[in-house]
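Work Package 3 (structural annotation) set out to generate three-dimensional models for the target panel prioritized at the project kickoff. During this period the team completed the workflow that converts sequence records into discrete structure tokens, so that structures can be stored uniformly alongside our sequence database. As a representative example, we reproduce one entry of 271 residues exactly as it appears in the project archive.
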Amino acid sequence: MAQPSGQPLPWQMNFQDAASPVMEGLQDMHNLLLYIITGIALVVFLLLGYIFYKFHHRKHPNPIIFTHNTTLEVLWTTIPIIILIVIGIPSVRLLHKMEAPINAEMTIKAVGHQWYWSYEYPDAKNEGQHFEFDSYMIEEKDLKSGQLRLLDVDNPMVVPIDTTIRVLITAVDVLHSFAVPSLGIKRDAVPGRVNETWFSIKKPGTYYGQCSELCGAKHGFMPIAVKAVSKVEYQEWLKSKTNPALKPEESLNHREDLNKGHVIKKHKEKA
């Protein structure tokens, strides 16, 4: 089983490792801006130091009076324009990559509820195997060794690696936000509206996120877990989900304990 890879680490200072082309682009853009900002700050600092030293009142008791300097005015107009072009070109390319329509190989619909996520796999509907399931956070007392507090769920979104996946995002009650940092995803889930994003994961692993919109009292208890597996493993998982003969003949009745703020699962007894 693949080890969790897209997760926050103690005392982490930088982004999580990029697991999708979009996140790689975001990290490259961040690094470019960091270099530019550092260079600007260094130049301004050195310039101020030079001015303080060169034009100190002891060296120039009588200040020089002037109103215009054509060369200086051209420079402080041209240099910012060049900087904006250097920033703007890769920025527009990245925005186009994030927002432009794609030829997705599969589609998943993520629906936000108070306070859990549900996932639908509409592509299987063409084969008469449309299915969906709810994804609840695992309570702290039920965590097993290796599972993450406030991040692991009972039913993660399972996807194949090396596959372009379109995610349709909406909500049924209030505003939520579907965000997975290592995949470069953050889209609002709006009731009555469907937003769209996409990702493609290169290596197997579990990539974690959380709702990033203040959606109510249990806002911090509806995590997102995306489990990426090989295409063979995904087909086996899909078959187990869509073939009734391969899964237990039981259903789960989810309800919320308003006092404790978590979800209790009850198995319906067979008649």
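The helical segments are 21-54, 70-99, 231-242.
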